[in-house]
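Rather than argue in generalities, we reproduce a single protein record, letters for residues, whole numbers for local backbone shapes, just as it appears below:
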Amino acid sequence: MDTPPLRKPPPLWQESLLKLLRATIITTTLGMFIWLLGDVLMIVFASILYAIVLNGLSNSLVRYSRSRLSYYRALSLVIISVLSFGSLLFWHSGASIADEAIKLQQALRQQEISLYNSLKDNSIGQVFLEYLVPSSGHLHQNNENGVASLGSRIAESITGVLGSAFGALGNTFGALGTIVIVLIAGTYFAADPSMYANGFLRLIPAVQRPHIRFLMIRSSTTLRSWVAGQSLDMLVVGLLTTLALWLIGVPLPFALGSLAGICNFIPYIGTIIGAVPALLLSLPLGMHKTIIVAIAYMIIQSFEGYVLTPLIQRHAVQMPAAITVLSQTLFGAILGFPGLIFATPLTAVLLSILDGVTEPLSEEDRIP
């Protein structure tokens, strides 16, 4: 019986071309998927972050009770505690917080008008306005005082540069609806995380499941460490900023400190965003007060960058500063404002995955 002739392997160039074509198709498909469903993916990722917070608090409560509580009872206590704290805060301080927010908005609007009037009265300021706000020629048509909101124009310019748009889903449901979806989905994820993880693993070929499972566990550990460290960082920055502004005598210290802590969720860029309102509100107090506020923010951020962050990173996620800044630019351009917000945790997950799929460098391969 004649044996069939052996098939010759394809040439090396043809095999390389096929690999390149396969990688190009996969990358293009993945890019189109992210571009079309970017808003949904950001909501899913935010839900996962919230689920990680609930899961971590529940597991800590189980350990603290020495396993006297089951996970589901601990999760119920955590959710009830969070809802109760939010309800009490709203009941006792909701009116004052809303009043401070309204006062902050009105004060910023007045400072915007004052700043615009100061800039348009000198040649350097006019150049600045023409460069930053190309449509400043018709600003007088939009405000009862003859001046449009400079802050809104600046915000439009920034969002245009970053490509920040919340997308169709965010426009449909609004910010409040999106938050409700994140809270509900995150609660379900935290209630039974293994069910959703195992359901995802069933979609993976059996040969690849052990490796994907390892990467999923590694990613969840990275996110848990990042959330814990970032929460502590935001709390300390918010408290220090509130105390500093209160001692200096700047109006609305609680609102400004809370804003600084929340904005600190976005490294580097968030620091600038959180400092601008405080600097604007300190202008009527005199230039010396404004300089003191700027120095206070610099001291707090230096403490956060050189003391607090290194202490947190010993037990959390270590990320190079350059990669953090570039990731904000990249994800902000691709996914808009939500991508800018979640750029750091997304990058932490990607770095964790890359670290898990690549071999560490030997001493001979390292660049001195």
Notes: Residues 71-120 form the longest helix (50 residues). Residues 134-173 have pLDDT under 50 and may be disordered. Residues 105 and 255 are 11 Å apart (CA to CA).
